[in-house]
Design brief:
alpha/beta, 2 domains, 15 helices, 21% strand, globular
Length: 399
């Protein structure tokens, strides 16, 4: 009889899922993947078979499917119709913030949930939805163990200066430090580098996770040394609706001079800035690249400028680079953005191969380029499945 492992990645407007299957073979095999997106606006359910693009199901949903719990209810109904009484070994979740306490994936317990709720103010765009999915699974599958996999874990163990926020010690003692995010994505890329790009796997690599949320991570021998995201997911690069690095005086000005409320400032910083704020048109890079309006061009220019500037900063931390890796939605799918960032980073020894970049080849730098450039698709869900299997295996071993 086959066992199944469910992986959930719940966001503010989508619920991504993967179902992994294991029968006689020791490895988990991806059986189904999909998502419910457009939550709160025009929800749609899509499911695909394994690693292929073959669509099993695609349908528009009723507007009542508006949040993580209702999306999970719809997903549960569909899974029951497909898998019947199949045995679910466990459920793995992406949780954006693990705080200073959780440096490894952890079994979900009431105490863990209490700790994670305290971190909601540090990740208000993500953490509430991550926790809502965990709570919804607890109600529907009360006997099935769940594992929380944190986006901050991969960055623990960085040098003290990389984690430091230069505020008074009594304030820092409350947990204020640089945490870094997108860790599941970076961990997956680091794990695959020995096979995908063995020449740089043990060297100095900058990974550019460029999507609606965007950041960079400096890897030395596969370990995180520094990253552009800090205490919250607002720092570093310009993002879809978040500003990235911002003079703290701007926030003071919003409060003291413009009279904005905390709720209004939070909305500006998390939902109205970044590409959307600059352009006034869209937070979608594809739409901005296709739009000739000067505001759209300015938004793209700033995105590239900030990425190139931060790449330079992380190169200084590493003492030079051996490779640059692009991943996530924009990084994997936009030859134009990759081209412009590589050209701006040519001083680091990157010689772009325009044809390879346009084709979306794995290696997009020329032969003989002093520092190589790559496109490696990320797979956060597989990373969550691996961690969930490991945690559940340890729990079982203790019994």
């Amino acid at each position: 009889m086959a066992d199944y492992l469910l992986v959930l990645n719940a966001g503010s407007s989508s619920l991504k899922f993967c179902v992994y299957r294991r029968s006689d073979a020791p490895e988990w095999q991806l059986d189904v993947r999909g998502q419910i997106d457009g939550l709160g606006t025009a929800p749609r359910f899509t499911a695909r078979r394994g690693d292929s693009d073959a669509v099993i199901k695609s349908e528009r949903l009723i507007a009542a499917v508006r949040d993580a719990p209702s999306a999970l209810e719809h997903l549960a109904t569909w899974l029951r119709s497909r898998y019947g009484g199949a045995h679910v070994s466990g459920v793995g979740h992406r949780v954006v913030h693990g705080g200073p306490r959780y440096s490894r994936p952890a079994l979900v317990t009431p105490a863990l949930l209490d700790d994670l709720r305290e971190l909601v103010p540090l990740a208000p765009l993500h953490q509430p939805h991550n926790l809502a999915a965990i709570e919804a699974v607890s109600e529907r599958l009360p006997g099935v163990p769940q594992v929380a996999c944190f986006d901050t874990s991969f960055h623990r163990g960085q040098p003290a200066v990389a984690e430091l926020v230069p505020l008074p010690q009594d304030i820092r003692a409350s947990g204020i430090q640089r945490y870094g995010f997108h860790g599941l994505s970076y961990e997956y890329v680091a794990s695959i580098l020995p096979r995908a790009a063995p020449d740089i796997a043990a060297g100095r690599v900058i990974v550019a996770h460029l999507g609606s949320g965007a950041s960079l991570c400096a890897l030395a021998n596969g370990r995180s040394i520094d990253s552009t995201l800090g205490f919250t997911a607002l720092d570093g690069l310009c993002m879809g609706t978040r500003p990235g690095a911002l003079d703290p005086g701007v926030v003071l000005y919003l409060f003291q001079v413009m009279g904005k409320s905390p709720a209004a400032v939070e909305k500006i910083l998390y939902k109205k800035s970044g590409l959307l704020g600059i352009s006034g048109i869209s937070n979608d890079m594809r739409q901005l690249l296709d739009n000739p309006a000067p505001e759209a061009r300015l938004a793209v220019d700033y995105f590239v400028y900030r990425a190139a500037r931060e790449i330079g900063g992380l190169a200084a931390v590493l003492g030079g680079i051996d490779g640059l890796v692009f991943t996530a939605g924009i990084g994997e799918n936009s030859p134009e953005v990759r081209r412009r960032i590589c050209e701006a980073s040519a001083w680091l020894g990157i010689a772009l191969d325009p044809d390879a970049n346009t084709r979306g080849a794995a290696r997009i730098s020329r032969a003989g380029s002093r520092a190589s450039a790559w496109v490696i698709p990320t797979n956060e869900e597989l990373m969550i499945a691996r961690h969930t299997n490991e945690v559940l295996g340890l729990v079982e071993a203790r019994r």
